[in-house]
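Read as amino acids, tokens; as here:

___
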Amino acid sequence: FERDELTCINLEGALTDQGNAMQKAHTFRGPTSYVNILTQSSVEFVTLANNHTMDYGQVGYDSTLATLQNAGIPYVERDKATVVTTENGLKVGFYGAVYYLMETEVITEAIRDLKEQADIVVFVPHWGFETNPKQNKEQVELAHAVIDAGADFVWGSHPHVLQEMEVYNGGIICYSLGNFSFGGNIYPDDYDSAIVQQEVIRDQAGNVTLGETIVVPVCISTNDTRNNF
């Protein structure tokens, strides 16, 4: 990760030392000190657009935002956009969305706005059905719509298993990359995952295009009966 210009992860849970768990089947959090796991691993960006960042209420969410800000880690929230400028001056725009509120017209309009501000636009949806290795029709239709609107990359999560990857209209779609280091499941449905490395090329005229896409297969555990991270 140290050799990448921008390493991005889905932060599935709150970073908080306070707050009460929401009334739901699964709640995830880590102490605020765990932000060091990100900084020491060269993670430079996180998405908070998922169904677990509010697991410890507004107190927990506010703590997560403050913890990331203090650590110098930028983020994207649900139904919001942000632009990150890398050390080499590349402007990467992100828009986050979660499955229970995804309006195609709203999202595509946000993507078009981001295209005016950033060199590369990434749509970050938390969508699909958990444990299902096949993306559904709604995922495909929305992914194609955002690429058509100007997004360069779709980086999906939520199913906790790998789903297909697709090249569409010059853009890259990762419907779900599965888990990486996820403490919410000791006995995962899928031990396979992937790291996707996307090359970005800027020519002498300043035009930015996608280059080579490298998919690195990984296994989330060295134990074939349980998750040992």
